Amino acid sequence: MMVTPIIIDTDPGIDDAAAISLALCHPEFDLKMITTVNGNVGIEKTTANALKLKRFFNSDVPVHRGASRPLLNEIVDAIPVHGESGMDGYEFPPISEKDLASTHAVEAMKTALLNSEEPVTIIAIGPLTNIAILLSTYPEVTKHIKEIVLMGGSTGRGNVTPLAEFNIYCDPEAAQVVFNSGLPITMIGLDLAREAMFTHDFVKKFKNTNETGLMLHDIFQHYRSEDFEYGVKIYDVFTILYLLSPQAFNVIEADVQIELDGRYTKGATVVDFKSQYPNCTVVLSPINNMYEEVFLEALNYCK
Questions:
Q1: Among residues 72, 51, 64, 56, which one has the least CA distance to residue 9?
Q2: In the predicted model, is pLDDT for residue 116 greater than 90?
Q3: I want to staple 64 with a disulfide (CB 3.0 to 4.6 A). Which of 21, 69, 105, 279 is the partner?
Q4: Which of helix, strand or coil describes residue 149?
């Protein structure tokens, strides 16, 4: 089996918790570290939530705290969607400060990338602040990055403004740096999760799979993504499902640029499918409901 070395950069968040759980337990991934960023909730809480998951899985994967605010933007959060703590709904074991690695996320990523024997895939499921700082400060790491698979953006409508998706809107300048880094980028945006709902029946179905299934089921009940009456949109988990099974999704190459100046459009991902010079693979839609099988199969590896 091919094992992919990965780093997860994250702002947990309920959907982040699903992605982290699968990545920590799946034998196809070698998770080098989890780095945290301000996003769904503030950096203190996103870091605490990453540590709760580390403790839940008794994992020795290091957690490194990263950027506490966007490059230029004012701070925005998503407390109405994820609850006050960012991961309401489940009683996690207590965490302690000593569970946190002392090095800043950006320094830790740099060191891990430069020392890795093979190129590392970065899975970015929060605002792109840490990744932009990493690429701008230490450009020498780029040849050690295999690709960046990110959750963010949309080819059409947004979810925080009419045109902007939350992770990009939080730090559009950082996103612009990352999309123009010259690295292979896969964008998993709102288009996919809108078509690949986790219905409430599906969520009930995996509740009794194992402890992780129960934990995810319980926190999903506190997750107020749009269209909650029909199901939950677990955006971030699709980064993992895509890496496990790219053939389960429809993709198209495009040039993606970030709108930085527009009064009504700031943070919009402007996706040009006709460009001669694409910088990105955009994951558009699921093929059948294969993603459900990929998810259940991955969940079986968890405790």
A1: 64
A2: yes
A3: 105
A4: strand
Q: Which long-range contacts (CB under 8 A, 24 or more apart) does 110-119 make?
A: 110/134, 110/137, 110/138, 110/141, 112/7, 112/32, 112/33, 113/7, 113/141, 113/144, 113/145, 114/140, 114/141, 114/144, 116/5, 116/32, 116/144, 118/5, 118/146, 119/5, 119/143, 119/144, 119/145, 119/146
Angle at which helix 237-244 crosses helix 290-299, to 10 degrees, equals 100
Using omega within 30 degrees of 0 as the cis cutoff, is the peptide bond preceding 13 cis?
yes
Give 150-201 pLDDT, tens digit per residue. 999 999 999 999 999 999 999 999 999 999 999 999 999 999 999 999 999 9
pTM over 0.90: yes
Residues in the chain: 303
* CB-based contacts of 25, cutoff 8 Å, min separation 6: 57, 212, 298, 301, 302, 303
The pLDDT, as a whole number, for residue 102 is: 95
DSSP alpha helix (H) spans, the chain: 14-25, 43-56, 79-82, 105-115, 129-137, 166-170, 172-179, 190-195, 200-206, 211-220, 237-244, 290-299
Pairing outcome for strands 100-101 and 269-272 = unpaired
